[in-house]
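Fig. S4 source data, part A: sequence.
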Amino acid sequence: MMEFFLSSDAILALLTLTLLEIILGIDNIVFISIAANKLPIEQRKRVTNIGLLLAMVQRIILLFFVSFLIGLSKPFYSIEFSWLNIDLSGQALILFFGGLFLIYKSTSEIREKVNMPMHDENEVKNKKIKSFQQAIFQILIIDFIFSIDSILTAVGMTNGLSENSNYNLILMIIAVVISIAIMILFANKIREFIDKNPSIQILGLSFLILIGFMLITEAAHLSETQFLGKTVGAIPKGYLYFAITFSLFIEFLNQKISKKQNQKN
């Protein structure tokens, strides 16, 4: 067990997933803060912390549920044509539709943030919250909506890392706990950083498109899909880690160049 968690693949997956969970959790922090700000000042911090803890609990519960579904690897139906062969399983279907959802959701979010950056915030602001209980209920709904992206991202980053699915589940839970803990401790600083550098969040959503595509190809691979006589292979996780790391490095360089230019001006 320890050999897996100390392996380079597991450590890299944990670091990358934790970073993505934090980036994707920014909207969650913003919406929880908006809901909390409708309450008296003395209750706001408590509601915000409770909201983030509820987000963690929801995500862990959903991780167990999704991990169970992904464990359904036995084919239950076969599609056979002269040009296409697929052995359908619960695992393949979850990964396939999860990948489609991530691609659709991330592209929609990018479009909305570019064209209507304050749309979701305004919707939350317009909702009436008069009590602590109402705020918690509203936050539970917000947490559930944002948990779906988080869970599918975690599955995409860890699926297939270990033959033991329990190890992958534990890795996902660790990443979720660490990311929520960091958000609780540094929520305001993280939000301020993203506000100053909105391209970071767009970059995070772009990573979801990559992860979604990888989930679809992995679903095809696990269902032993053959298209025109060619078997669909799985995309190695290392390619994904390299793409994310390289993109973040380029973004870091862009930030450094922009700061130097601003200082000169």
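Fig. S4 source data, part B ends here. The chain has a mean pLDDT of 79.
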